[in-house]
Amino acid sequence: MSRNAQTIVQRLISFFCGMAVNLRILRGGRRVWSGSYDRSKRMPAKVAIIAALPREIAALVQGTAADAGLLKRGVHLYRLEGDRLEGAVVAAAGMGAERAAIAVEAALATGDVGMLISTGLAGGCVAGAAAGSVMEVHVVVDAKTGERYTSAAQRTDPGRSVTLATTQTIASVREKARLAASYGAMLVDMEAATVARLARAKDLPFRAIKGVSDSFDFELSSLAKFAGKRGSFRTGAFALHTALRPWEWPKAIELGRGSSRALAALDQSLKLTLSER
Questions:
Q1: What is the DSSP string of 40-55?
Q2: Backbone dihedral angles phi then psi of residue 19, each to the nearest 5 degrees
Q3: DSSP state of 127
Q4: Rounded CA gap, 268 and 59, in Å?
């Protein structure tokens, strides 16, 4: 193997091992935030933030211990504490509709939830959804049923309209184009419609704030092969698979960079959202 190839493989392994490190740090101690905070002004109802993978909320919950009992079921649930973030609950239980419903159920079980926010990574369906950016969604469409859900952002910002389509599998370039043509979708994910449906059933306001991991013309077909148990993603297996296939390195690196930028921006957006309650 050439020196250049070795360097690329090392970068791939480093990036994907970094994902695993992000997951391990979630088991740390309690979060401490600086600054003053008047508890008497805190909203009584909690905001529940629902993601698919723990990596998507790793920065937000860093230093906060997950609920040990729920970890046995593959549910990562955190109760945030500290300056202006106290009262929020964050849950990730895996990819797909079934696991999203489990995450919502766990969050609601903590009691006094006043809003559901679907978050995490999404794919771009149009050129305007750039990898590495963050977008708040106004309309969510379930691509399986055609049902539409309006977010709280649509009512507060009627002049804009960002539509996200939820599918059952990772979308190919062809599927992204179909979703854009059929529903006017700018983004695609696998969980938001489930969170929106459950919010409607519970008569709770709903928002969706997504980081864009890949552009409308991006596709890495091998990704779908690495869905694990309970909606997890087998990061180590994917890294090894990619390292042995040099022709996939450019795409994997592109996805890694886009995802990292999107998650950093998403973390800032979520913290701002919570602080503005």
A1: GGS-SSEEEEEESSGG
A2: -60, -45
A3: T
A4: 9
